[in-house]
Amino acid sequence: MLLDPYKRPVNYLRVSVTDRCDFRCQYCMSENMKFLPKKDLLSLEEIERICISFVELGTKKIRITGGEPLVRKGVMGLFKNLGSLLSNGQLKELTLTSNGSQLERFADELYGYGVRRINVSIDTLNPKLFHELTRRGDLEKVKRGIDKALKVGLKVKINTVALKETNENELINIMNWAHSKGCDITFIETMPLGEIDVDRTDQFLPLSKVKEMFSKYYKLSPSKHYTGGPSRYYDNEETGHRVGFITPLTHNFCELCNRVRLTCTGKLYMCLGQEDSADFRSAARSKDWKKDLNDAICEAISRKPKGHDFVIRRKQAPSVNRHMSVTGG
Ligand code: SAM
Ligand code: SF4
Known about the structure:
TIM Barrel, binds iron/sulfur cluster, alpha/beta, binds S-adenosylmethionine
């Protein structure tokens, strides 16, 4: 098992298979986001080698993310191959974070390859605002994708970024909608990752405030459910489903961090909120890739930092230059 310098087991790999996306969510990217040239991306086979090497070192959970992972050509082949590691128990969970735009098309296949739970991001249930916030998205298409996913048997968790004034008054509705579909929901605070067109202090809504507001209407009791991640969950006794809050800025979530993140160019970030990384590209391309990746992974994990230093200040550059779409959310 991989242990970092603070004796935290590292058993969860998140893989951004592309930095590209068919949306341009206002808090995530700018309208004129410059994507990486395709030639800089690892091939899906190279990504698979890195995933296999992590699994051989004890990784139990892999999440495919992006950018929008379902827009990468051939990505179903990666799900298929990684899915085969589930059948012999080497891997416990293969999952996905998606904006849902391509889910109607791929839900069946994902289930077939062993995916059982996915996260889908939806920040508003107002079609016009959805189009505005994503700068091009079609809410109905995303909803159809979610319905299809539920129909084929995937468990869906909704992710919603809480944005001051924008969706602030809708958050209870979004939770009720998610719970009415049998989906848990996690609310996320905006994180200072990458330059965008607006000032993040204008968007930032502390979830402590949101939770306080929810508690006026619902009895929320701390849930036993814990994923080893930054989300703290509560059971909504009325709806029978969970609501989670990810509070990277108001609460330090690093003590039990079990994850690392691979970018589509082969860089491993040992912390979402720090610049230090390890480059796996040449190891993934080497003839002796099994040994080289094994060595590279162990060396990288020995550098996993204790935690992040996020701050959001007015008119200040983001704490971290990479967009979430590069590191994988
Ligand atoms: N495109 C997919 C999606 O939207 O679910 C996967 C990648 S996206 C980067 C993963 C998650 O990160 C989404 O739930 C998104 O809302 C969230 N996200 C993106 N930028 C963020 C930021 N600056 N702060 C907080 N969450 C962010
Ligand atoms: Fe794309 Fe997801 Fe970023 Fe929105 S949050 S722009 S869907 S990567």
